Amino acid sequence: MFGLTLKTLMKNLVLIGVALVSSGLIIDGASKIHFRPEFTVKYTLKEEVSLKELIETKIDCNAVKPVVYKKFPDLRGLHPSVRKEVFIKLLLPPVLIAQKNIELQRALLLKLEKKTTAGIPLSQDEKDFIERMIKRYKARTLKGLLFKFRPHPISLVIAQAAIESGWGTSRFAREANNLFGIWQFNGKRGIKAKDSDAKLRVYKTIMGSIEDYLYNLNAGWAYKEYRKARLQTKNPLVLIEHLSTYSILREEYTERLKDVINHNKLHRYDRCRIEE
Predict the structure, then answer these.
(1) Residues 206-235: tens digit of each pLDDT
(2) 143 SS3 class
(3) With contact defined as beta carbons under 8 Å apart, do 96 and 154 qualify?
(4) What's the gap between Cα 82 and its chain centre?
(5) Which of 75, 140, 172, 207 could form a Cys-Cys staple with 168, CB 3.0–4.6 A?
(6) 55 closest CA partner among 74, 93, 81
(7) In angstroms, what CA-CA distances link 76 with 2, 165, 173?
(8) Residue 180, CB half-sphere, CA atoms under 13 Å: how many?
């Protein structure tokens, strides 16, 4: 796919089940795409959260430690200002990790596009990879996939998580690691919303919730205008105008997002990078 032979690509890879190996990834029979370690950020998964430790920890935006907590803690007992600080410290590493993974994998796709443009034949593994990614992101072509598959402003992600989870105090955040109000529609395990038969999705870790949210922005039909605007600007306050469909509150919701970003100075986190 990227100028490497299949023999080289298979080196040091362990195949689980019936799998196909392509440049930087493993494709299994369940239509899942597992990227090789060099195309995903390594991180430490911790079972327990020490609120005292988080409160005392300073954020180094040049090298944020890649630590992800398995379960979102109960922040309700904290003073509002401290709660916001801890919420950001909990959320920032997994958001940066998920965003970096998109950047790495998008760079890999761009290399593939260059190979195609140069007229270099693709292997079957490479073709399978393109087809799976196109299908997953509901695109029609590689160009269309690259249009959709992009990272997002960190401040915007934090702001939406803050609103949707009440800065981490919602029942769905505490019991389901669901920070973005993502619904469960396919009958799988979910957590029931009060006074409703609807269910919200349950995640094993905070990372799962973040990855689903980023995927929805990149693939969901409701965010087509947002993706178009993203080609023109990285300014979260401009992009927010195209996220009114995320909530039944519509324009009121986008104004709330702007207020959260401005009031809490979330722009400062847009320059943060995960430690590698």
Answers:
(1) 999 999 999 999 999 999 999 999 999 999
(2) helix
(3) yes
(4) 25
(5) 75
(6) 81
(7) 49, 12, 11
(8) 23
Q: Report the C-alpha gap between 133 and 142 in whole angstroms.
A: 9
Give, for 25, the enclosing helix (H) or strand (E).
strand 25-28
Indicate which CATH number applies to the domain containing 194: 1.10.530.10
- H or E element in which residue 165 lies: helix 154-165
The angle formed by the CA atoms of residues 126, 127 and 129, to the nearest 5 degrees, is 65
User: Given this model, what pLDDT does residue 102 score?
Assistant: 95
Q: Quote the domain boundaries for residue 171.
A: 1-276
Measured CA to CA in angstroms, residue 63 lies from 43, 44, 234 at distances of 13, 15, 21
For residues 39 and 155, which has the higher predicted lDDT (pLDDT)?
155
Residue 153 structure tokens: 């402003």
Task: State the pairing for strand pair 199-201/44-46.
Answer: unpaired
Number of domains comprising the chain: 1
Instruction: Pick left, alpha or beta for residue 46 (phi over 0 → left; psi -120 to 50 → alpha; otherwise beta).
Output: beta
Q: Are the C-beta atoms of 99 and 276 separated by less than 8 Å?
A: no
pLDDT of residue 36: 58
